[in-house]
Inverse folding.
């Protein structure tokens, strides 16, 4: 094998993102500028899937840890999965969910270690001047319309998507 044909193995990190909904609004996290991954961007709540945990278990746990809302696995509605390559030191497989919550009083409050939470309508999120995690520019409309997807994205060094592929699922 020549040096130009060697394969570099990269760590693959499994994560979840949950968009909590109350009436016509989504709970959106404005990530702290000091965060290593996606600083100063808008996203849902979530994080890494721990060893031995399913994406559903992680969605329930991350929702409780970051917001204080107690949800059941059956409360999570599957939205889609994206494989994200390059641009970061690791590759990611992200499972996206939505979940309804009974009211907009976030039990842990609106300020978290990860950033500030705020309730936004779909239109407010889309029209916000605050930068979004780049993958959301490609999938948030699908999440809002409950269109199930699976896809992949290739990022450049500035963490912008340069190639995006998406397929819709009939579930």
């Amino acid at each position: 094998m020549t040096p130009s044909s060697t394969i570099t193995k990269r760590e693959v990190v499994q994560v979840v993102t949950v968009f909590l909904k109350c009436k016509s609004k989504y709970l959106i996290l404005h990530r702290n500028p000091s965060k290593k991954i996606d600083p100063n961007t808008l996203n849902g709540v979530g994080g890494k899937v721990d060893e031995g945990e399913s994406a559903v278990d992680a969605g329930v746990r991350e929702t409780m840890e970051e917001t204080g809302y107690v949800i059941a696995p059956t409360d999570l509605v599957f939205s889609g999965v994206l494989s994200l390559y390059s641009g970061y030191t690791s590759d990611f497989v992200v499972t996206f969910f939505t979940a309804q919550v009974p009211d907009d009083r976030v039990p842990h409050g609106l300020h978290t270690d990860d950033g500030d939470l705020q309730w936004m309508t779909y239109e407010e999120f889309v029209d916000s001047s605050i930068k979004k995690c780049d993958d959301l520019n490609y999938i948030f409309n699908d999440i809002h319309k409950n269109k199930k997807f699976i896809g992949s994205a290739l990022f450049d060094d500035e963490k912008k998507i340069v190639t995006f592929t998406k397929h819709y699922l009939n579930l």
